[in-house]
Amino acid sequence: QKEVEQNSGPLSVPEGAIASLNCTYSDRGSQSFFWYRQYSGKSPELIMFIYSNGDKEDGRFTAQLNKASQYVSLLIRDSQPSDSATYLCAVNPPLSGGYNKLIFGAGTRLAVHP
Amino acid sequence: DAGITQSPRHKVTETGTPVTLRCHQTENHRYMYWYRQDPGHGLRLIHYSYGVKDTDKGEVSDGYSVSRSKTEDFLLTLESATSSQTSVYFCAISEPVGAGNPYEQYFGPGTRLTVT
Question: What sign has the CA pseudo-torsion A94, A99, A103, A104?
C-alpha cells in the first residue's frame, strides 16, 4: 500500500461545477496535510494546508480533513478552465523529525471543460 | 518563486558520466530538499539538508550524493548516471517547524535530465 494515494484521473468537470479531489494516507500519526497544484511542465505550487479535523476555506478552495478515516480532500468551487492541472496531495509523517519532510501522492489530473 | 533557481534547466548526458545539478536560493532558508518526479510516482525525496554541511538521505537516495557548503547552494550529484535516473528534478526550500510559515515548501523551476 502506498503511503499517500490519489486517483490519477483525469477528473473531468464542466466549468462552474465543484471539483472534488480525494487523498488517503496510511500513517495514522500524520499531522499536516498539503495540496499542491502543478501545471504541465511547471513546478508544484502550494495552494492549501490543513492540520485540524474539519474544513478550511480559502477563496474557491476548501480543504477537508478526517483523521479518523485517514483522508483529506480538496474542493474547488466554480471550477474554471484555468484550474486544469495536476493536484498533488502531500503528508508530513510523524517520523519526519521536524525537518518538514513530505510524502507526496502521485497526483490527480483535473480537466475543466467549457 | 521564493528566490529559487536551478541549473541547468535541461541536460542530456550519457550513461556513466557524472552530473551535478545546482539549486540556489537567495532568502537564507535553512532547509533545502531534492526531489525527483516520475510519471506514476509523484515527487520522491532524494536528499535533504538542514544546514550548512548537514544533510541526510531521503527515500530514493541510492546513486545520488549531495553537498551544502554555503546556505544558498545545495548540489545534487549523480556520480555515474544511469538511464533510470532520467527524470525531472526539483529543489525545494522550507523553514524549520516552529518558525513563521513552518510547513510551506516552495519549489524551484526544475531540471529535466535525460540519460541516454
Answer: positive
